[in-house]
Amino acid sequence: MKKIAYTKAAQKTLAKMPANEATKVRGKIEQYATDPESLTNNVKALKGREGIRLRVGDWRVIMNDQGAVLAVLKIGPRGRVYD
Question: Does residue 10 contact residue 73 with C-beta atoms inside 8 Å?
């Protein structure tokens, strides 16, 4: 399993979102850190910048997969997270 590192912005978003949604998002991030192949349909490389995005319902998680560390850069609703 990879080590997961959250930015302050990602932690703040998780704290503000509904508890059930935050639990679902954290679970998908942990699932990706454990077995990236299990979520291949929901993960895409970003165009125009470095990183990948994970789709969790209407939420998007912008991450950077750097070897042993999975950096969670930003979490937000679909459409507004890419700004």
Answer: yes
Q: What is the DSSP letter of 17?
A: S
Query: What residues contact residue 18 under an 8 Å CB cut-off, 6+ apart?
Result: none
Measured CA angle at 40 (ends 4, 74), to 5 deg = 40
pTM of the full structure? 0.91
Instruction: For the chain of 83 residues, list the mean pLDDT of each consecutive stretch of 10.
Output: 94 95 96 92 92 94 91 92 80
| Distance, CA of 41 to CA of 19 (rounded, Å) | 25
E strand segments, the chain: 3-6, 43-45, 52-56, 59-66, 69-77
Q: What is the pLDDT of residue 24?
A: 96
